[in-house]
Amino acid sequence: MNIKKQFHYDPAIEVSASQIGISKWDWISTKSTEEKLAVELMQKNRFDVLPIENEDGTFNSYFSTQEWNVYSSLNKNKINDAQTIYYRLSLKDLIRKFKNDDRHYYFLTDHDQILGLVSYVNLNCQLVYNYLFFIIADIERSVSEILKKHVSQDEILSEFKKSEDKHLSDLSNSFQKSIKDNNDSDIFQHMYLQTVGITLKKFISKLPNEYKPLNKYSAKFGTEGVYNLVRQKVMHPVRPILSDKKSINQIDELLNDYIEIKNIAESTTHNKELR
Asked: Where does CATH 3.10.580.10 sit in the chain?
């Protein structure tokens, strides 16, 4: 075993459609093509999609409700290319497909056979909660580190003290109290997600030019910003994260912004290494 490797942590995380969805080895399916039996099974389990298993164990058709959660009548469908995605598709690309295609489910395939199914309901699993929490935390950490390098604590304190925003003045007082109590801390340890966005907007002029594009994301840290709205759902796992078109759009925006923010944050470091 490489012991040295155990001292390094690689925070890179990738979540695939197959990890979120359900495999054909675990799902409930039917071998019957009778609609009456399918209705009973789907209504009992609150399914909107029920795969039909062929005699050889393969799948190429399914029952579906004509309207979500309405079992009065069903459609019997052949699985076509528009209803399938590669089983290792990333969460980001899966969300983008849900958004662009306006679909609620896809069958997972390796291009030769149907391997499983992923739908809106699967997106509310613990893995997605954990992944989105990591994304939001990494955005907050990355922007904070940039601000730390280019804006002094004294500058931030001075700005917060004269602010009419009670949250900022309270944060300033809290930080100064921790210093008096001989606690080893910096002002960023007292910030919230929203405060990082406020600080970014207030001090964007202090940042080098390569970081100035970050300003377009500053409002998204706010109370009604998409990062905070998603964070509120992530912090309460009993609430569904993805349940409708609006929530799909929010996650799509978050994941797209994350890549852009990381590219801005890391591009400078990469350029310095090349010099």
From this structure: 17-119
